[in-house]
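Before the break, one more example. Copy the sequence into your notebook; we will annotate it together after we see the structure.
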Amino acid sequence: MVSTCHDIGRSDLVECAELGVSELVTNALLHGEPPLSVRVRGTREHPRVEVRDGSTDVPLMPTSNLQDEDDLLLTFGRGLSIVARCSSAWGVEVEDDGKIVWFVPQDHSGDLMVDGVVTGAIAAAMPREPSPDELRIDLHAVPLRTFVEFQRHYRELRREVRLLALAHEQEYPLAKDLSDLFGSLERDLREGIGADQIEQALRSGVATTDLHVAMPRQTAATIGRFIELLDLADAFCREERLLSLARTPEQQRFQRWFFNEFVRQEGGAPPVPWTEGAVLEAEGSPAS
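Here is what the structure looks like once it is written out:
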């Protein structure tokens, strides 16, 4: 973490970064669950330190109007209050399988505490009511390894633009726009990609699987917007020099095929399996 600050030319942040991450790692060891990891994300101009653990429990959040240090010592120690004093922004991002406590280090620690924010999958989404206009989408020969990489990349990108928008909306207006778009389509993506079927296939040890998804016809058409959205996010990653990677060409080809299948089949076209769709994509022909 310290070496990363030096590598990106932000040695001025090392003291606060070290102080904050020390407190967060201590809290994670005392109150969280494994696995534990530390990394630096954000941009070179605005790096963000993240400490992740396997617990979804949200810690007690100190606020700027909490003056009684004894209260902090009785709960999580002074860890989060110290983080709040050496950060320009910080918070907790809750995921399905753990949480990330993050902070944007300042170049010096102050006396005032910055209020933290809690975001992410705090509560399970309400189940979708069955639609009278259900559409069956068949996705053939889905490569499991590539699909899991896509899920991982998408979660990382979704979190990245959300946290950049929270901490630096004025500097990165496109991050705010992307975050809003991801949020508006989040439920469609979560419900429409056959995640349960993927988990069962992974447990069985196969390399590819067929997915069969039922969803409202309008939802299938809406999911096609992710093709344009992910291309836009790639450009944002490159232009803003994010400390996380844009998609690889292989990931781009797979995701275009995957989301195009929703759009194509909503329009009445027959399914095209990934093996054929990948060839058509590589040749620059439409998968129809």
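Residues 134-283 form one domain. The chain has two domains: 2-120, 134-283. Try to locate both features in your own notes.
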